[in-house]
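Example for tutorial group B:
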């Protein structure tokens, strides 16, 4: 199957994701929580997903990374989906629930938060967009970019990178899209989404 045959329409994404049963971390209620919104729309080359380039900020371990709108759950958030929607409104000035609807979620991902020893669980929610107003990024966001899912489904576009921390060096997978590197947690989320269609 060539990459052009993987993703055809937004409806196809919705139909495939709807019956998917994501893995949920059983301990998620007792650790720090975050959530992100993966906004998908029909594009010229098939469905495309919105990504943000995080602003360069000192002390932010994800500074300058490609990511999805999202962030830490607050006590006022009723659930993690509310977190994803609130953070998207704050970061890019768009309310996912008003311009589209949630078509499902992907598996929880565990990571280490900025502070503390307890892990943090991130839950990705996928939204199908009917329309998309002009984004209004806040100080946390440098850019808003649409990435074609067919680009990510093409293994020929996948590259390797070296991640370094102190003396530790690890070879990891990544994509370069329009001179922007997609890797890490964001890539893990995208890999799961793409895998449902292959």
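The residue assignment follows.
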């Amino acid at each position: 199957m060539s990459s052009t045959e993987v993703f055809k329409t937004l409806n196809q994404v919705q139909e495939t994701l709807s019956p998917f049963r994501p893995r949920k971390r059983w301990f998620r209620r007792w650790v720090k929580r975050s959530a992100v919104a993966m906004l998908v729309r029909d594009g010229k080359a098939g469905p495309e997903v919105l990504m943000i380039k995080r602003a360069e900020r000192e002390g932010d371990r994800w500074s300058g990374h490609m990511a999805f709108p999202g962030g830490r759950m607050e006590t006022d958030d009723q659930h993690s989906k509310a977190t994803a929607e609130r953070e998207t409104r704050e970061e890019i000035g768009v309310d996912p629930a008003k311009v589209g609807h949630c078509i499902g979620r992907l598996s929880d991902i565990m990571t280490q938060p900025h502070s503390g020893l307890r892990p943090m669980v991130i839950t990705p929610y996928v939204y199908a967009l009917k329309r998309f107003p002009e984004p209004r990024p806040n100080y946390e966001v440098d850019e808003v970019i649409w990435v074609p899912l067919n680009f990510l489904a093409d293994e020929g576009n996948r590259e390797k990178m070296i991640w370094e921390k102190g003396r530790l060096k690890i070879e990891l997978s990544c994509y370069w899209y329009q001179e922007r590197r997609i890797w890490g947690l964001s890539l893990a989320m995208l890999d799961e989404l793409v895998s449902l269609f292959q």
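The helical segments are 10-17, 80-92, 96-99, 149-153, 184-195. Compare this with the pattern of hydrophobic and polar residues in the output above.
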